[in-house]
Amino acid sequence: MSNKVFQQYKDKHKGERVFLVANGPSLAQTNLDLLKNENTIAMNRISMIYNSNKKWRPTYYLFSSTNVRPDKPWGQEWTNSVRTAISEERTTSFIASMFQQYIDPRGEFPNVKWFSSMSENKPTKEGIISENCFSTDVVDRIDKSGTTMNLALQLSYHMGFTEIVFVGADLGWSKDLGSTSDPNHFVESYRAHIPNPEKVNHQMRNIHSLAKRHFEQKDPNIKMYNASLKTVLDVYPIIDYETYVIERQPYFQDDRLEQAKAFWDRPHQFA
After folding, report:
1. Per-residue pLDDT reduced to its tens digit, 45-62
2. Band of the pLDDT at 1, cuts 50, 70, 90?
3. Is 181 exposed, middle or buried, given 0-12, 13-18 or 19+ CB atoms closer than 10 A?
4. What residue ranges define each of the domains in the chain, with the CATH number in brackets?
5. What is the pLDDT of residue 179?
6. Minimal CA–CA distance to 68: which of 26, 36, 92, 101?
7. If DSSP codes are grouped into helix, strand and coil, which group holds residue 128?
8. What is the mean pLDDT of residues 20-42?
9. pTM attached to this predicted model
10. CB count, 10 Å around CB of 33?
């Protein structure tokens, strides 16, 4: 198997910037309409924020989660939000083909590109990941390793972006078994199962570190910024979101970066 759907996107955005829109709590306070003319990659249940951001829709949308299966507690809710996302004419969607039977069994959505070759490298209980968690050739294989953000990072690499900016990439997960009051996402009714937050926190931080290393090996002049409004992700410089979008100049917030680093210095309890 291969991911031929990605071939035409090789270096399509070479030299451009992209905003990777995660689903953390701070996204609720982020004015995404400012990104209406920007390249953006969003994921998962992002369509739940569309009503409060009328002008913006992502350039690309990514999804690869078992949460849409009918045997999952909120399978239909997740399926509905994914279908809303892929129904947007302005958005090109990339979705793992194993989920087509749940999301689009009749082939109703022409803007969806289904990819088939995806690996899943499991981290240790401390969130340590394998070097194989990042693929530099997504046509051959793309790796998820527990987070759709990893797919977005690899796709950004493939498309040739040279400025990568994160919003809603908060981390700092807390334990949640899928209650109606989700503390880890931009809306309380998001519903995601996070039984081991310390593992997930370290896993995601390590994935960002691995991706950053690959980007810098490809282009030492790469620019990667975290513009999330509230975050403990300390892998990249933290900058002011609106200043960067409007003025295209990073206003570095070193005090926030130091606060983020302090999160990782505290004792961690792994289940």
Report:
1. 999 999 999 999 999 999
2. low
3. exposed
4. 4-265 (3.90.1480)
5. 60
6. 101
7. coil
8. 97
9. 0.95
10. 11
CA nearest 167: which of 6, 30, 2? 30
**8 A C-beta contact, residue 46 and residue 91:** no
Nearest residue to 21 (alpha-carbon basis) of 55, 51, 58: 58
Length of the chain: 271
Note whether 97 and 105 are within 8 A (CB): no
- Tokens of residue 270, six digits: 């792994």
Task: Say if strands 193-194 and 176-177 run parallel, antiparallel, or are unpaired.
Answer: antiparallel
Residue 18 bridge partners (DSSP): 39, 164
- C-alpha distances (whole Å) from 38 to each of 13, 56, 158, 239 are 12, 9, 18, 17
Structure tokens at 160: 């040739």
Per-residue tokens: 130: 């394998």
> Tokens 């809710």 sit at which residue?
77
How far lies 221's CA from each of 93, 162, 217, in Å?
29, 8, 10
* Greater pLDDT, 38 or 191: 38
